[in-house]
């Protein structure tokens, strides 16, 4: 029983890790807290929904399309909007992101109504068992995809020219500029990548849970929890944070009841900020 | 501040005072209610301004004080049978005490971390009130009915809100002339330098946070009593925090009158949008937030004080200052 709960937590934790990956990248590189992150996850989920219900494309295939669409949206928003205020004080970018969040989620509300929708894949209910532990295929698939995407992120950041310019810009903006990095473009790519990852998370979310236009707010907050829990600016922080939150939530809701899920996440958030502000993997100064 | 700017400010202040007293006697209940809400947001934006504008700590959870104020009043009056005139100050004090307790750990954080921590505190409080028995959980709680005529109630809440707003202004203006005010601004400009010059930064920050909580708590008490029924979703809504910050920024942070002007303009814009676009008004509100932040990040007060001439160039210059 306990093992099953922990496995469930780990599987959901993989999805949390993917949610936080994009937010962590954007935050670490540009010092922007992307409050609209959850709204982008929602957009990814709706992309998947429409590809599935209109064209009958399986979510695990339309994933690539969703990521591409979200990448373009993210790139454009950074290039033509956020770059305009990037050097203002932090709460200017925070409120701008809030404005974007309000705009996107209400646009979705107007276009697609507040109805809760579901992507019902044929293999949604099938699962397999190892001993007494039951594992649904869809959840395991989502977990594996989340880890693969995290791996791709790792590769892009460490092994490519784009990754080098992203890391250079995050270390020292002016120095990066001096050695010829197009900072505005790098920022836009970074934001695009982060939002693309949110799109992937949205796709996987839609396979596992019901979706609606207002789902983003709580997901943004959970992404914070994961980023902070793992430690900002660490490569594996989101994964460690995601799995920790997933398991903590699974155990917590088992002991206290499902209505306490949010209370548990946000209490963890505040406690970690106070006692462990560098996160689990973060180095102390 | 230029000569022209000072005169403009006095004229605006005069108009606001006259309009503020005259409005309830010249208009109907709907308009009075609209301005009561506007006054409430002006209180919230002004309170936010104390911690966010003067002290430089961008709190993203200030709605928690509104919620606590509202629930202290609701629980005291409904469950304890306490009269309003005791519950009202108790709500302000309750929110201030909460600010002190939560401020001690949270105000050690800086920048984004402080913003997110306060947001987390507000969400955690919402989730807690959602699950407590004494607050009647997520089904909401009623408050006792008020024994006044309908018109009397509208006038009562209008002038009470105005009273709290004036109190907020007076206290803010008072502390700005004292050591506390200078200390807060010093913390905003450079906390380490302020500390090394002998400013007790922890004490000052907590005082600032507690003041911010106190006035928001009073507003929460009035809001709850006026509504007669409150729910956690409504009084701990993160959207209210966003609104008060947008108002403070749009009006001009770090000025006393700015948040009021911001609250007035944003409320009027929202009301007009709601009238014309019933379904999509929040969508347009989001667009306005984006445009206001991009084009007028220094707020209306920057234009009024007349440091720079307003025009297309003014708007573009704001972008040039912060773009990459």
What would you note in describing this structure?
The complex is a heterodimer of chains A (285) and B (324). With 285 residues, chain A is mainly α. Chain A has one domain. Helices cover 73% and strands 3% of the residues of chain A. Chain A is built from eleven helices and two strands; from the N terminus they run ααααββααααααα. A two-stranded antiparallel sheet of chain A has the order 1-2. In chain A, a hairpin with a 2-residue loop joins strand 1 and strand 2. The longest helix of chain A is centred in the first third of the chain and has 29 residues. Chain A is globular. The termini of chain A are far apart. Chain B has 324 residues and is mostly helical. Chain B has one domain. Helix content of chain B is 77%, strand content 1%. In chain B, strands 1-2 form a two-stranded antiparallel sheet. The longest helix of chain B has 28 residues. Chain B is globular, with a radius of gyration of 20 Å. In chain B, 49% of the residues are buried. Chains A and B meet through helix 4, helix 8, helix 9 and helix 11 of A and helix 5, helix 11, helix 13 and helix 15 of B.
Question: What is this entry, summarized?
Answer:
With 285 residues, chain A is mostly helical.
What level of helicity do the residues of chain A show? over 70%
Tally the helices of chain B: what do you get?
Answer: 15
Low-confidence stretches of chain A: none
What profile does the largest beta sheet of chain B have? 2 strands, antiparallel
Sheet bearing the most strands of chain A, described? 2 strands, antiparallel
